Amino acid sequence: MNALGDGAYVLDADRNRVFVNDRLREVTDFDEAVLHDEHPERLVETGHWSKETGDRYRAAAERVLAGEVDDERVQIAMTLGDGDGMTVETRLTPVERGGDIVGAVGVIRDVTDRVERERELERLNERLERLAGFLSHDLRNPLSVARGYVDLARETGDTEGLAAAESAFGRIESMIEEALVMARDPEAIETADEAVDLADLAADCLDSGDFGEIPADADLVVEDAGPVVGDPTLLRRAVGNLIGNAFDHGRDAPTVRVGVDERGIYVADDGPGLPVDERERAGLTEFGVDRGGGTGIGPAIVERVAAAHGWTLDIVESAEGGFRATLVGAEPTG
């Protein structure tokens, strides 16, 4: 058995490991006392396996030893002797003597890379499914608006409505840009480190209308908002969405404050806020979920932009009782 490329071992009828090959010793770097002991209890006790993993393995081994199955395959995430992690697949087959099952042979194969590829594919599929749902559902409204004004202009010759159509097309373009950011892994998003004037950025977000309709009696207050270091385009998406979200969920005459402090860039509102125990359920940063019934892509965009810069998004209660969202880690240039 020592010639096998995979790790191998033999269990007796009481699940004690009575043999391990050199490959298993080499890969796991486990002590001999751990290798030759009741399996999987010893590995769970020493922290190499989780209790849940041990329970799954024990159930599989018992089925093999009881003759209920010809073999069992168990995928296991383990911590090696040097502290590194590895995911393996163990195949258990019975050992018979005189027609009785007296033990089992286990063969271990490293499947860490395969599992990571499968997880990445699952994450990609999930992003694509959410992206497809967003594009197919949430683009319909501004597209219908634009089409309606264009059709009206064709029928009547009146071009006054084309300005509204152009605005709708601009909103569609912004939504597509946001969706493209959402479709990518934060690690794959390239960011530029430039000095961005936060006051100018906030004013541009407010004037553009890209992030929703701002109430006429709303007030945007810029506090201590000098230049910050970040990617100008991505920061505009993030800060704009935070401002739009603050106005959407503020009071009848909302005041939104934007600035940068020792923690990072913040956007705070004076809205009603949410109880602490409801914040996680509010869908603040989950793609496709919004506590106000919208698309939910705005808060998710903010979190994705933060991650691309190596920052985090922190949402707490503001001094006025509403929300205070902070891009923690963003730094001023001065």
Automatic annotation (TrEMBL):
Keywords: Kinase, Membrane, Transferase. Coiled coil: none annotated. Pfam families: HATPase_c, HisKA, PAS_4. It comes from the Archaea. GO terms for molecular function: phosphorelay response regulator activity; phosphorelay sensor kinase activity; protein kinase activator activity. InterPro entries: BphY/WalK/GraS-like, HATPase_C_sf, HATPase_dom, His_kinase_dom, HisK_dim/P_dom, HisK_dim/P_sf, PAS, PAS-assoc_C. It catalyses: ATP + protein L-histidine = ADP + protein N-phospho-L-histidine. GO terms for cellular component: membrane. Residues 134-327 form the Histidine kinase domain. GO terms for biological process: osmosensory signaling via phosphorelay pathway. NCBIfam families: sensory_box (TIGR00229). This is histidine kinase.
